[in-house]
């Protein structure tokens, strides 16, 4: 009864992860899936609507009689939805953006793996079969086969990953209930956003951006001329994901401005107005910068283990130090204009700079991965969770 009462009155915003329209129980169609070859629609009763619960199969001769709906679709766009999507305490949505080769696929794979085995009092589960299948394949490829992810293909908008987090730390002993959080993850296009081209793909990516609560904007430091000059050809070639990356350096200022303008168009923000979305600016492949001249020494905060998971909260002082160290490093690389572009496009209280290494050390010359020791990959997520009040700010 407590579960029903809580679900009736929570005010978290529920959006279809595909079309971003507001979802209510009446916005969904439900189906009984107990008989594999004879799926049939289940209709909501008045009691279902009043009690905010999944409808039960009432077909007398169905083997699933009395069982809750096993599938659902959105009435607006017709895309499949996890039937339980309506019944969570928080709805978290993040979108990873960046040009091809920035490390989005690697980051999302290792972030989710580390989240599952972090030691935090959470259980993370896939909400649908597509998420489960894709995640298992990515996990095996990286952690078992030790292959670098191929990355998001150009002109392809990956399906949203839909996860549920069960929070054991907030369990109510009297009601035997624990808070649950819906986590939708969008992987942006595998090329420059401003050059997507395909109208259907572009529309999807724009919806993903507009519906996300946090943007994870990823930049590859190996695109900087100063970094290229300081690294050995072996490390550079092994760590580069695409031929485009290897062939020529990229103007980071242009990248920031292009992505910012694309975000404005997606979120209907006026030109020149600062973006008010929470934005994690993530410098990837931190492992390649460890030993380069004017790089990060072992005593740097950014190179030390993250304290957030150990402390079970977001250590703001640590994050601020990492932000400062990376900004100072970028200035030493002559990238002051890059920082100015970030500050000109994003609201200062909404943006934070992070440094991560998805693998912990560079791949070998055959692009095979060593023993994985992901570094600070959960930091941006912990920042979002702190903003949502799920973990404390310490």
Short description:
With 394 residues, the protein is an alpha/beta fold.
Structural features, described:
The protein is of the alpha/beta class and 394 residues long. Helices cover 33% and strands 15% of the residues. It has helices at 2-9, 46-51, 104-116, 129-144, 199-211, 225-230, 233-239, 243-247, 252-267, 308-311, 316-332, 336-345, 379-387, and strands at residues 28-32, 40-42, 71-74, 80-81, 90-97, 122-126, 161-167, 180-187, 214-219, 278-283, 351-355. 39% of the residues are buried. The model is unreliable at 1-11 and 243-249 (pLDDT under 50).
Task: Spell out the blueprint of helices and strands.
Blueprint lengths: L1 H8 L18 E5 L7 E3 L3 H6 L19 E4 L5 E2 L8 E8 L6 H13 L5 E5 L2 H16 L16 E7 L12 E8 L11 H13 L2 E6 L5 H6 L2 H7 L3 H5 L4 H16 L10 E6 L24 H4 L4 H17 L3 H10 L5 E5 L23 H9 L7
Parallel strand pairs: 5-8, 5-9, 9-10, 10-11
Antiparallel strand pairs: 1-2, 1-3, 3-4, 6-7, 7-8
Helix pairs in contact: 3-4, 5-9, 9-12
Total count of helical runs of at least 4 residues = 13
Topology pattern, helix = H, strand = E: HEEHEEEHEHEEHEHHHHEHHHEH
Specify the CATH homologous superfamily of the largest domain. P-loop containing nucleotide triphosphate hydrolases
Just give the CATH class of the largest domain: Alpha Beta
Average pLDDT metric = 85
Lateral arrangement of strands in the main beta sheet = 6-7-8-5-9-10-11
What name is given to the CATH topology of the largest domain?
A: Rossmann fold
């Amino acid at each position: 009864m407590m579960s029903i009462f809580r679900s009736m009155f929570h005010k978290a915003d529920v959006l279809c992860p595909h079309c971003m329209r507001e979802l209510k129980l009446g916005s969904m169609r439900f189906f009984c899936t107990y008989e594999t070859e004879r799926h049939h629609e289940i209709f909501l009763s008045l009691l279902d609507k009043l009690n905010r619960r999944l409808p039960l199969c009432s077909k007398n001769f169905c083997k699933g009689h009395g069982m809750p709906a096993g599938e659902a679709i959105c009435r607006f766009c017709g895309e499949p939805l996890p039937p339980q999507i309506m019944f969570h305490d928080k709805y978290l949505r993040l979108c990873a953006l960046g040009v091809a080769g920035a490390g989005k696929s690697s980051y999302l794979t290792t972030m989710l793996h580390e989240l599952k085995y972090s030691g935090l009092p959470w259980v993370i589960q896939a909400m649908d079969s597509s998420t489960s299948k894709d995640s298992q394949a990515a996990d095996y490829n990286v952690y078992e086969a030790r292959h670098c992810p191929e990355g998001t293909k150009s002109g392809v908008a990956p399906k949203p990953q839909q996860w549920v987090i069960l929070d054991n730390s907030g369990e109510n002993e009297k009601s035997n209930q624990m808070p649950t959080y819906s986590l939708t993850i969008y992987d942006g296009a595998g090329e420059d956003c401003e050059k997507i081209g395909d109208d259907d793909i572009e529309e999807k990516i724009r919806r993903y951006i507009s519906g996300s609560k946090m943007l994870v904007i990823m930049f590859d430091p190996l695109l900087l001329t100063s970094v290229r000059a300081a690294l050995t050809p072996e490390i550079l070639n092994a760590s580069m994901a695409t031929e485009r990356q290897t062939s020529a350096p990229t103007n980071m200022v242009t990248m920031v401005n292009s992505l910012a303008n694309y975000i404005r168009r997606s979120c209907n923000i006026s030109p020149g107005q600062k973006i008010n979305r929470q934005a994690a600016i993530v410098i990837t492949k931190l492992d390649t910068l460890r030993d380069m001249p004017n790089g990060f020494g072992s005593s740097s905060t950014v190179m030390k283990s993250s304290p957030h998971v150990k402390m079970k909260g977001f250590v703001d002082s640590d994050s601020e130090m990492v932000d400062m160290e990376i900004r100072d490093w970028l200035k030493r690389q002559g990238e002051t204009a890059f920082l100015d572009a970030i500050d000109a496009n994003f609201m200062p209280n909404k943006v934070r700079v992070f440094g991560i290494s998805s693998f912990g050390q560079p791949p070998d010359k055959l692009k095979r991965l060593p023993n994985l020791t992901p570094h600070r990959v959960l930091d941006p997520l912990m920042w979002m969770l702190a903003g949502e009040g799920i973990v404390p700010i310490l």
